[in-house]
């Protein structure tokens, strides 16, 4: 595994100034934070540094102000909610560099915590401008990155700063990297991947990379329809990318030559209309889908067979639901397989790592997110990692 420094490698930080990159791009409605998961993820790092006596300056982006000061996107809005989660006083600094920051550091006591302004108010953030990085670094002694979710971007606060100051992975970044290493970097075999969701086109690079990495590739969701259609199955009016048939055949051929077994559903849940518990709901073999029906979930027999596959595996990486899980009963296969994975994880026979916006929602819906070994909320960064790409924010931490 590529090595990086963690907070364990810090010496005495009493009175030292830490620049800590966090993800405070919080979902908000009418000025109130609707989900504070990202704040809670940053708590261990912030409190550990503060309790060791460092002066903690939090850096983050919020929204897309595109290099302008946009008052509705000021990070001053998150000061109270962050303070409430931390249980500490939090100062707000309306700059990221210069004298105002310097003076604020002078006021902060050892162990004090401040949030700096939205880094994207400066054009140099997204351009990863070395001059801006220098100005920001000038006020600090070391840099900690605790925002894996922003690590797929080579920005000033995610990448540039790591080259100018001693750089460390925060606890949340460390946990994410360790989980990802166990899932795909250096996994215990056999390894299974579940890839579901709406479209093949949004996950082409994921599929192409995974067939070279895993022993079993389980395809579900709308993208299974595209795979079935490429195998000359008539999928009726299912969501399907017919133009990707050749691409899919290429992925299947690559899987074959890598010794990766691809699992497609052989029974499916179909209906004529997309609605909750529709009257036309039925389960059938994939070869019996009528022209006016659409496939909305993996069928019960295939789900049982997939559970049996997981029982033979030691590692699982999961992105994408197996069906249109937001609408009942098309959540059935996803919920059942997620519960199997959770039970195997609890027994200690499976390391299970999952990620993706809808995937996390589906696991929460199944009530098993807490039973997986690790659930990543990182979205784009998680997907790029599943594509086998090097993330600039992670690469910059490597020693
Ligand atoms: P993630 O956000 O976890 O990466 P995706 O965004 O790729 O997942 O896919 C999730 C979406 O795929 C969900 O909205 C779900 O309803 C949809 N989906 C899954 N199966 C089907 C299907 N058979 N037909 C249509 N949509 C589907
Ligand atoms: Mg999604």
Chain-wise SSE layout:
Elements: E1 17-21, E2 28-29, E3 32-33, H1 37-51, E4 55-59, H2 79-86, E5 91-93, H3 99-107, E6 113-116, H4 123-126, H5 130-137, E7 142-145, E8 167-169, H6 171-185, E9 191-195, H7 204-210, E10 216-219, H8 221-230, H9 245-258, E11 261-263, E12 267-271, E13 282-285, E14 294-298, H10 300-312, E15 315-319, H11 332-347, E16 351-355, H12 357-366, E17 374-376, H13 380-386, H14 392-395
Parallel strand pairs: 1-4, 1-7, 4-6, 5-6, 7-8, 9-10, 9-15, 10-11, 15-16, 16-17
Antiparallel strand pairs: 2-3, 12-13, 12-14
Helix pairs in contact: 8-9, 10-11, 11-12
Bound molecules: adenosine-5'-diphosphate and magnesium ion.
Number of strands: 17
Please list the strands of the largest sheet in the order they lie side by side. 5-6-4-1-7-8
- The separation of the N and C termini measures 11 Å
Strand percentage, roughly? 15-25%
General shape:
elongated
Low-confidence stretches: none
The name of the CATH architecture of the largest domain is 3-Layer(aba) Sandwich
Bound molecules: adenosine-5'-diphosphate, magnesium ion
Helix content: 25-40%
Largest sheet: 6 strands, parallel
Average of the residue pLDDT scores: 97
């Amino acid at each position: 595994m590529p090595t990086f420094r963690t907070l364990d490698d810090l010496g005495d930080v009493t009175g030292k100034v830490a620049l800590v990159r966090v993800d405070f791009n919080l979902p908000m409605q009418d000025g109130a934070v609707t989900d504070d998961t990202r704040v809670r993820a940053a708590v261990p790092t912030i409190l550990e540094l503060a309790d060791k006596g460092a002066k903690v300056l939090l850096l983050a982006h919020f929204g897309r102000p595109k290099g302008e000061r946009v008052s509705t996107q000021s990070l001053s809005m998150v000061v109270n909610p962050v303070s409430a989660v931390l249980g500490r006083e939090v100062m707000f600094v309306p700059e990221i560099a210069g004298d105002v920051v310097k003076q604020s550091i002078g006021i902060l006591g050892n162990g004090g915590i401040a949030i700096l302004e939205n880094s994207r108010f400066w054009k140099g953030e997204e351009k990863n401008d070395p001059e801006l990085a220098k100005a920001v670094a000038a006020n600090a002694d070391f840099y900690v990155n605790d925002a894996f979710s922003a690590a797929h971007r080579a920005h000033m606060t995610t990448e540039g700063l790591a080259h100018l100051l001693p750089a460390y992975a925060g606890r949340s970044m460390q946990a994410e990297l360790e989980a990802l290493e166990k899932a795909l970097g250096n996994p215990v075999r056999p390894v299974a991947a579940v890839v579901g969701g709406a479209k093949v086109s949004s996950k082409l690079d994921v599929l192409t990379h995974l067939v070279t990495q895993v022993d079993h590739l389980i395809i579900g969701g709308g993208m299974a329809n595209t795979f079935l259609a490429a195998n000359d199955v008539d999928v009726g009016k299912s969501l399907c990318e017919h133009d990707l048939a050749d691409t899919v055949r290429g992925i299947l051929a690559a899987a074959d030559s890598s010794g990766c077994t691809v699992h497609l559903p052989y029974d499916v849940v179909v209906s004529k209309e997309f609605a909750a518990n529709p009257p036309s709901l039925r389960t059938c073999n994939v070869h019996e889908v009528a022209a006016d029906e659409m496939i909305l979930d993996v069928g019960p027999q295939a789900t049982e067979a997939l559970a049996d596959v997981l029982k033979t595996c030691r590692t699982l990486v999961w992105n994408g639901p197996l069906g249109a899980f937001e609408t009942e009963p098309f959540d059935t296969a996803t919920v059942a397989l997620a519960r199997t994975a959770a039970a195997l994880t609890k027994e200690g026979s499976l390391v299970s790592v999952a990620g993706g916006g809808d995937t996390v929602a589906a696991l929460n819906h199944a009530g098993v997110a807490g039973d997986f070994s690790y659930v990543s909320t990182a979205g784009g960064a998680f997907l790029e990692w599943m594509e086998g790409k090097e993330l600039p924010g992670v690469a910059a931490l490597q020693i």
